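User: Sequence recovery, please. Input:
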C-alpha cells in the first residue's frame, strides 16, 4: 500500500504531537528532575523522549520527496520564508532563551522540558528546506569550507559516544578511581 505525501506528513505530525503530549504526561506524572543528570537521562537521552528531532528530519524528507510539494518549496518566497523563519526561531531560542543548564532545576520550565528541543529541530528543518529551495546564498553552504566542517562535525557526532567513554576510562585510570564523585 502506497501512501500519499500528505498522508505521510499528517502521520508524522500526528506522531510528533502525540509524543509532545506523552512528554507532558510523563513530566507531570512520573519524572522527577532534580539535577542536570536527571534532565539528560530522563528527558533527552531515552530514544522515545528525543524522537521528535528524528521525526522532524523524516518530515523534511517526505516533503522534499513529493514532486508537487518540492515545486512549492522551490518558490522563492517559500524558500525565503522557511529559511528566514527557521533562522529567526533558532536565533531566538539560542540567544534569547536562557538554557536549561544555566538554571536551577526547580526553575526549568515546561517549555524547556518539552518544546525547546522540538522547536530547535523545527528551526533547522525550516533552514534546511529553505536551502534546498535554493534561497539566495545557498551556495555559501555548498562551499568547500562549510562542507569540510560539516563532514568533520558529522564524523565527530557519529563517534563521540565511543570517544567520550574511552576518555572517561583513561581519566579514571590516570586519577586512580572510578570517577564516581556523587
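Assistant: Recovered sequence (182 residues):
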Amino acid at each position: 500500500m502506497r501512501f500519499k505525501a500528505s498522508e505521510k506528513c499528517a502521520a508524522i505530525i500526528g506522531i510528533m504531537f502525540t509524543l509532545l503530549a506523552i512528554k507532558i504526561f510523563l513530566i507531570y506524572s512520573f519524572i522527577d528532575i532534580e539535577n542536570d543528570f536527571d534532565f539528560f537521562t530522563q528527558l533527552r537521552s531515552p530514544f522515545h523522549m528525543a524522537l521528535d528531532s528524528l521525526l522532524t528530519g523524516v518530515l523534511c524528507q517526505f516533503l522534499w520527496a513529493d514532486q508537487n510539494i518540492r515545486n512549492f518549496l522551490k518558490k522563492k518566497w517559500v524558500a525565503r520564508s522557511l529559511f528566514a523563519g527557521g533562522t529567526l526561531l533558532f536565533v531566538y531560542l539560542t540567544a534569547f532563551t536562557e538554557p536549561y543548564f544555566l538554571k536551577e532545576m526547580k526553575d526549568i520550565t515546561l517549555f524547556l522540558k518539552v518544546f525547546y528541543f522540538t522547536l530547535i529541530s523545527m528551526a533547522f528543518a525550516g533552514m534546511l528546506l529553505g536551502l534546498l529551495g535554493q534561497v539566495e546564498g545557498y551556495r555559501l553552504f555548498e562551499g568547500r569550507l562549510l562542507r569540510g566542517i560539516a563532514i568533520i562535525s558529522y564524523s565527530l557526532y557519529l563517534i563521540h559516544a565511543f570517544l567520550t567513554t574511552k576518555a572517561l576510562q583513561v581519566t579514571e585510570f590516570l586519577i586512580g578511581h572510578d570517577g564516581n564523585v556523587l
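The mean pLDDT is 78.
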